[in-house]
Design goal:
Radius of gyration: 25 Å
Low-confidence stretches: 1-19
CATH superfamily of the largest domain: Glycosidases
Number of domains: 2
Bound molecules: beta-L-fucopyranose
CATH topology of the largest domain: TIM Barrel
Strand order of the largest sheet: 7-4-3-2-1-11-10
Order of helices and strands: HHEHHEHEHEEEHEEHEEHEHEEEEEEE
Helix content: 10-25%
Distance between the termini: 71 Å
Structural class: alpha/beta
Length: 486
């Protein structure tokens, strides 16, 4: 009896020691900043495109459009915010200035703005109204400020940079916290340019002096993330398409210097030296601005679900655009589509079937409880399963205790320690044999795999290749209802 007790005490103390002695894995490669982390966790947020184009039915204004056209009779930013909130979005980015140069706020530095429009007798400020609505609905506010300005006389000359920065200063000082600033890459070409009416080309790599502009942005808004598809490497990257998807392989990495061709934007760079995650921007309609002939072309539920799986489900965020109508509202068809979309996403991921399952790992870092397999199903994003250093192939077996139906597999890496996994598979034990349901490459912040519904009692998630020991924070298995094509 004495020996037995001694044995128990020994093993308890050795577990205790191993827990305390096992160190967390060292970060591998570049890691996200806290601003990038906060942004990534938002997952889903809105764009609104609204400007003089809304009244001229154009995709891009030339810069000579009459300010008197801007007169939204029912503008209600609270309607935008309500819809975005109900749709599960976490913020709204507004086109404060699109390429035509017209400003939705009464900028001190130009006459080409709401202050000279008939709307509210020139006393209105759309950015202010949206900032207030976002505060009311607990949404974050983001700003799109087009670097290309087809109205401004100085565009292409050094004086324009002073103008651009003055505008940035207004926007990043007067409207509270801004979570993201968006610099569109469409740059230079024909325009009105204060009446010059000519073609102006700029050198995208030098003209904007991004380095100093970024510094100003960070001084004014320390919690912001910067998106830029041209110029210097920013905090976030474009994915090389506006069609609503990022690569199946999606590294949140790029190199700080050098060209970024399409394949790098789309897939990231496996051994890139900087953390630059992907944001998938797309519109709920074919175009960015409102065109009445697109009222029947709003994306369908299956299209929006595909977008979801190919953006958020592939380690990206989703920036979904609403074109605002001339009256200042989101069209009812767009509202309906966005709400159906969020309902379908909520239904698909309502019940995580692994929550009551048993999970076992082929290897646990130092056999320590704090890195155990169960950390992937504890509903806590900051705990994780990790393997010993040098173990880059490992599996988790999930046992439901009884056969269940499922068709989605979700997995998340603890990216604060870097993005590591290069390849993995998901199998189910069917009729006593392991059957592969899906195989994929990268994971990153979140990866979701879809496959035909299967019934099984056990699932095996196997990491077949990883840059370093894998660090997995979360696993989910779901039985998503089938979406019927309308
Ligand atoms: C593009 C722009 O040229 C479009 O008009 C739109 O603003 C989109 C989000 O980015 O590059």
């Amino acid at each position: 009896m004495k020996n037995l007790l001694f044995g128990i005490a020994l093993s308890a103390s050795s577990i205790f020691t191993s827990c305390h002695q096992t160190k967390a894995p060292a970060p591998y490669g570049p890691v996200p900043s806290e601003n990038q982390m906060r942004w990534q966790e938002m997952e889903y947020y809105a764009f609104v495109h609204f400007s003089l184009n809304t009244y001229t039915n154009q995709p891009w204004g030339y810069g000579n459009e009459d300010v008197n056209l801007f007169n939204p009779t029912e503008l209600d930013c609270r309607q935008w915010a309500r819809i975005c909130k109900q749709a599960g979005m976490k913020g709204i980015i507004i086109t404060a200035k699109h390429h035509c140069g017209f400003c939705l706020w009464p900028s001190e530095y130009t006459e080409y703005s709401v202050k000279n429009s008939p709307w509210k007798d020139g006393k209105g400020d759309v950015v202010r109204e949206l900032a207030n609505a976002c505060r009311e609905y607990d949404l974050k506010l983001g700003i799109y400020l087009s670097p290309w300005d087809r109205n401004h006389a100085d565009y292409g000359k050094p004086a324009y940079i002073t103008y651009f920065r003055n505008q940035l200063r207004e926007l990043l000082t007067n409207y509270g916290e801004i979570f993201e600033v968006w610099y569109d890459g469409a740059n230079g070409g024909s325009g009105y340019y204060g009446g010059a009416d000519e073609n102006r080309t700029i050198d995208r790599t030098t003209f904007y002096d991004w380095k100093n502009t970024y510094q100003l942005v960070r001084e004014l808004q320390p919690n912001i993330v910067i998106w830029n598809d041209g110029g210097d490497r920013a905090d976030l990257r474009w994915v090389g398409t506006e069609a609503g998807f990022v690569g199946e392989t999606n590294w949140s990495l790029l190199n700080a210097a050098g060209d970024v061709p399409f394949n790098m934007l789309h897939y990231g760079v496996e051994n890139g030296d900087s953390w630059v995650p992907a944001e998938v921007n797309t519109s709920i309609r074919p175009e960015w601005f409102y065109h009445p002939d697109e009222d029947a072309k709003v994306k369908t539920l299956p299209q929006l679900m595909d977008t979801y799986y190919h953006s958020i489900g592939r380690n990206g965020t989703l920036l979904l655009n609403f074109p605002i109508m001339p009256n200042g509202l989101i069209h009812p068809n767009d509202e309906k589509a966005a709400l159906e979309f969020s309902k379908a996403v909520n239904e698909a991921f309502a019940v995580n079937l692994v929550e009551k399952a048993q999970v076992e790992a082929s290897n646990v870092r130092g056999n320590a409880g704090k890195f155990a397999a169960s950390k992937t199903i504890d509903n806590n994003q900051i705990t994780y399963w990790a393997t010993d250093d040098g173990v880059t192939k490992a599996s988790l077996t999930i046992d439901f205790g009884k056969p269940i139906l499922f068709n989605r597999f979700l997995v998340q890496e603890y990216i604060r320690l870097g993005q590591r996994v290069k390849a993995f598979t998901v199998e189910a034990l069917v009729d006593g044999k392991w059957k592969e349901l899906a195989g994929a490459t990268t994971i990153g912040y979140k990866r979701i795999l879809s496959f035909p519904t299967v019934e099984a009692m056990q699932v095996r998630f196997t990491i077949t290749d990883s840059k370093s020991c894998p660090v997995i924070s979360n696993i989910g298995i779901y039985n998503a209802p089938q979406i019927l094509t309308p």
